[in-house]
Amino acid sequence: MSNHLRLVLEAVHRVVVSYHRDCVVRDAHGGQRSLVPRVAEYMRRGHISFRVFSDGGRMRTARLLVVGAVVTLAACGGGGGDDGGGGTGPAVFTSMTVTPASVTVPPQGTQALSASAIDQRGQSMTGLTTAFTSSDNSKATVSAAGVVTGVAVGTATITVTGTIGTVSKTKDVVVTVANPGQSATVSATGSNTFDPKDVVIATGGTVSWNFAALHNVTFQTAGSPTNITDRSTGSDSRTFPVAGTYNYICTIHGGSMSGSVRVQ
Ligand SMILES: [Cu+2]
Fold first, then answer.
1. 214 C-alpha to center of ligand 1: Å?
2. At which of 110, 143, 177 does a domain end?
3. Under DSSP, is residue 54 helix (H, G, I), strand (E, B) or coil?
4. How far is 179 from 159, CA to CA, in rounded Å?
5. 185 CA distance to ligand 1 centroid (A)?
6. Could you tell me which residue, 122 or 32, shows the higher pLDDT?
7. 99 and 172 housed in the same domain
8. Partners of 177 in the β-ladder
9. Ligand 1 centre and the CA of 239: distance in Å?
10. Percentage of the chain with pLDDT > 70?
């Protein structure tokens, strides 16, 4: 029985290990070949037997291995296996998207860029590393994480370089740095966020908040305009005559629902 148990454990382990290996490959390929036929095959051969679970001490190990295989199978979606081997070559880093595609920020304003990799079948790929450079740091800078900061009125081009393995793609994002407008609009959303979280307006400008759910706008900064009390629909606005940064929260949802108005 002990020898039998060892064989079973090895077989289960082999399933788990080989499935993990295949899973990584499949993720990269975007294919869906299933473990189901493989498990069925092992069971048919008698390599997997649930009899051993009555064998006291090692039962837990065996169960963990089997559970691991099952969980991995479930996590990977376990397709029907019908598409196995059908023209699914390795995923190739084919294109890169960067959002937003263009940026307008005021001086000192920021905007994060987000890059994602797409393979030859249009599926997103993981493992993208990115680098960002600005054509003109006197107009706009960009951090290693891809956050653009406006410096002075004008334009700059941010070049995003994305790399997976030995393949690199580049994308340019034009950044326009312009003085802020007299007004901005913020949504107090149904998902308990202020969107956009941070706005910039010219001195004397007005911000309007549109309410999609029950929220309030409670300022945290001295010299702020009057708070907007709880409301769930419609909109309300406040004017900001003095330059500065005015932080606010929704007290219903606490610090996690916060925003700011920069007046410059
Ligand atoms: Cu709220």
1. 6
2. 177
3. helix
4. 23
5. 16
6. 122
7. yes
8. 105, 154
9. 21
10. 67
